[in-house]
Amino acid sequence: MRDFTFIVACLLITGGATLSDAQPRATTRDTTTPPGYTLVWADEFTRNGWPDPRNWTYERGFVRNQELQWYQADNAVIRDGFLVIEARRETRPVRTFEQGSTDWRRNRPHTEITSTSLTTRGMHSWRYGRFEMRAKIDIRAGIWPAFWTVGDAGRWPASGEIDIMEYYRGMLLANVAWAADANGKSAWDDSKKPIAELGGDAWARRFHVWRMDWDESAIRLYVDDVLLNETDLQETVNKDGSGRNPLQQPHHIILNLAVGGTNGGDHTGTTFPSRFEIDYVRVYQRTTSAPSGAGSSAAR
What we know:
By secondary structure, the protein is mostly beta strands. It contains five helices and 17 strands. The chain is globular, with a radius of gyration of 19 Å.
């Protein structure tokens, strides 16, 4: 059954041709390892089909932020060298529905939008390094793509969060979060860049490179080598009494395409599908003086 679904998904994604506005990989991809770094993990998305199960697993259902989409595995596919995460308008029954429930995850009998959230959680995580993604994002109303990390230990926000790329409501964001108290309140060092300042729709039709440079002292977040945010890690110790700094522990990666919710905005005027197209994701680490505990559980 899944093979048939894959064929249909490929046709939907490509429209019987090639990915929308895809830039030729042979002339645009940079495979040079940055000086002073070693590539410790990457997914280049060169194998057509489903995402590599050695690299990725899936979040499922309604997960966070009162978002509208139901996360499932079937909305992510690799085609012609790109991972495409697709948000679709489709009605599906919600298996977790409970009549009379006040929980937003359980009080909807049906979902009208599906999408995918991929994560390396439980498979690969890293402490410090250079994280890169080359991708193209949809900036239409209600669409909320993200490339981010969460710490392996602790409950959010005490686990720490790094938003290398997040977009919604006309803003490109670069954020870092930790615990502001012991009651679940989050502290943020955030940055918002109006997409209009970058070039608006014309900018969004092209692929761009998002990057995090992370060491024991700071996190620096970039797009196309433009610094968006810098966080001093002396300031990110959790204020929950633990004395822990969640930005100095291993983090795993999440790639997702959300719709609506607390921040995504109104999607009603947006036609679907919406696509988050990813060329590659790479993690590099310093070749010398690597902090203890750095690395992946299964680097390749």
